[in-house]
Design brief:
alpha+beta; Heat Shock Protein 90; 11 helices; 64% helix; membrane; transmembrane
Length: 386
């Protein structure tokens, strides 16, 4: 029974993925609320006057008050204004709103949760004005108790929506702060790694010179070969580290910590889920031996993609796939948000992924997923050729 329920929920999530899926869900929600409102308002409920001389106008205003919810996530503030206009119209001609109150309540939550902070403030102001107008238009029907109930209901949904939006924004800040801390840690490691390599190269160069002076060409060539190998490794590591650190971020401090790898991906997915974006992780194949640089690059790509899911879309869920092949490693991140290209505000989001992939002669594809949303797929070699 539980498995069947989980599968049903998963099908519903996939069906509502992407812009078209969300619009379809909003249309169905509007239709359901509208049907309930029409049944209550025209069905002879005791809370609604039975004798209506202007039934057509009542139906039209109810459709405006509730049917506008179909556009709630596309134009949140406009939808709130339309629903409130319909409700105020019902108050003027009828004195009773009935279940049509569902319209502005849902619209108020949407404006607070899915719009900007400024729009949410405007939404709260509009709701306050509408409540005052309703009381002046029908002070008899809207008793003091009713006014308190209405104000409490709207206040609750506005606070709930604001909490959802604030949680999403805090998640973005937390992810950015964690990324900055990791970059600063790597900055300190850069000096250690390159300092050691340069020291080895200086010693080997001095030894090669002395060997040439003594005529020991064989050992001199061996010393020069060691200098070449050390230089190549240093250049690769330097390009890798500088590619990660190219963004200018606000300075902060952080303790030294182990370099993250795909072994830590489960914890990353869990943090993103706790931040408000449910994320599913799928791992296939045997991990085996993976080059440390490739391991870190794959982790960073997944981290950046999930950060973009939080920052640049209205995604409600994401999926991470890690596939260990015989000679390659594939990571895929998809969400059900907007399908347009996304990256950090300074253009380094996707550019960073491309640089990390190109550094190891891998392949990267970004764009809309098959079912909508956004998809990032990176293929990297398990081992780096020397």
């Amino acid at each position: 029974m539980t498995v069947t329920a989980d599968r049903t929920i998963e099908r519903l999530r996939r069906a509502t993925a992407g812009p078209q899926g969300r619009l379809a869900f909003d249309v169905l929600l509007a239709a359901a609320c509208l049907g309930l409102a029409l049944v209550v308002n025209l069905g002879g409920s005791e809370s609604v006057a039975a004798n209506r001389e202007d039934g057509a106008l009542t139906v039209a205003l109810t459709v405006l008050a509730v049917g506008s919810l179909a556009l709630r996530r596309r134009w949140p503030l406009v939808t709130l204004l339309l629903t409130l206009a319909g409700v105020l119209g019902l108050v003027v001609i009828d004195g009773t709103v009935g279940a049509a109150t569902l319209g502005p309540i849902v619209a108020a939550y949407t404006a607070a949760a899915h719009a900007t902070t400024r729009t949410a403030h405007w939404a709260a102001a509009v709701v306050a004005v509408a409540l005052v107008l309703t009381w002046f238009l029908d002070p008899v029907d809207l008793s003091s108790e009713g006014a308190v109930i209405n104000a409490a209901a709207f206040g609750a949904v506005l606070l709930l929506g604001t909490g959802v939006r604030d949680r999403r924004e805090r998640a973005v800040v937390d992810v950015r702060a964690a990324t900055t801390q990791e970059r600063l840690r790597i900055t300190r490691e850069l000096h250690d790694v390159l300092g050691h390599s340069m020291s080895v190269m200086v010693v080997q160069a001095g030894a090669a010179g002395r060997l040439l002076d003594t005529g020991d060409a064989t050992r001199a060539r061996a010393a020069v070969a060691e200098i070449e190998q050390t230089g190549r490794r240093s250049m690769t590591e330097m390009r890798h580290l500088l590619g990660i650190l190219r963004d200018d971020e606000e300075e902060t401090t952080s303790p030294r910590a182990p370099t993250p790898t795909l072994s830590d991906i489960e914890a990353l997915v869990a943090r993103v889920g706790e931040a408000g974006l449910p994320t599913i992780l799928t791992v296939t194949g045997e991990r085996g031996a993976v080059s440390p640089g490739v391991d870190l690059a794959a982790y960073r790509i997944v981290q950046e993609a999930l950060t973009n899911c939080l920052k640049h879309s209205v995604a409600t869920r994401a999926e991470v796939e890690v596939a260990y092949g015989t000679d390659s490693l594939t990571v895929v991140v998809t969400d059900d948000g907007s399908g347009s290209a996304r990256g950090s505000s300074n253009g380094h989001g996707l550019a960073g992924m491309r640089e990390r992939v190109a550094m190891y002669d891998g392949a990267l594809s970004v764009g809309s997923g098959a079912a909508g949303g956004f998809r990032v797929r990176a293929v990297l070699p398990r081992e780096v050729a020397t």
